[in-house]
Design a protein that fits this description.
Layout: E1 2-8, E2 11-17, H1 23-30, E3 49-52, E4 55-58, E5 71-73, H2 86-93, H3 103-118, H4 134-140, H5 151-162
Parallel strand pairs: 1-5
Antiparallel strand pairs: 1-2, 3-4, 3-5
This protein binds FE2/S2 (inorganic) cluster.
Domain 2Fe-2S ferredoxin-type: 2-78
Pathway: Alkaloid degradation; nicotine degradation
Pfam families: Fer2, Fer2_2
Length: 163
């Protein structure tokens, strides 16, 4: 067992984990933070996406011990008091979901994606860094799958917030 300390959604947490425990399992099973979802558990679906020091990661592929000292933000940490994060509100306005299972990961990913774009980071695949049009949003969000196929609403919500 290794003791690790993290800030999770602004709260200081300390927990003992075996070296093989994923960050996703540590969040869900040890800390009761169940917003990040386990879809594939192998880095293919994005349902487990969280922010680590503002960077989006697949928590199922991350070992908890690697995140000692980090600031972890999940869907539970995005709202400010009673005010939803603008992306949360936009997903509701634009019906960017059906069953909702992928939504926490979609929104965390979109938060980081918009920050990446604003910082001028090019898309990893297209190497474009231009206007955040529909094609660019779809490319930059391609790591987050929606089995219900709510992609049109997801893209519209992101475009709305991107301005
Ligand atoms: Fe982590 Fe699918 S559960 S990518």
């Amino acid at each position: 067992m290794t003791e690790i300390r993290m800030r999770v959604n602004g709260a200081a947490e300390s927990l003992d984990v075996e070296p093989w425990v994923s960050l996703l399992d540590a969040l869900r099973d040890r800390l009761g933070v169940t917003g990040p979802k386990k879809g594939c558990d192998q880095g293919a679906c994005g349902a487990c996406t969280v922010l680590a020091d503002g960077v989006r990661i697949n928590a199922c592929l991350a070992l908890a011990v690697q995140y000692d000292g980090k600031e972890i933000t999940t869907i539970e940490g995005l709202a400010t008091g009673d005010d939803l994060h603008p992306l949360q509100a936009a997903f509701i306005r634009h019906d960017g979901l059906q069953c909702g299972y992928c939504t926490p990961g979609q929104i965390c990913s979109a938060v980081a994606m918009l920050a990446e774009h604003r910082a001028g980071m090019p898309s990893a695949v297209t190497e474009r860094s231009g206007e955040l049009d529909e094609a660019e949003i779809r490319e930059r969000m391609s790591g987050n799958l929606c089995r219900c196929g709510a992609y049109n609403g997801i893209v519209d919500a992101i475009k709305d917030v991107a301005g």
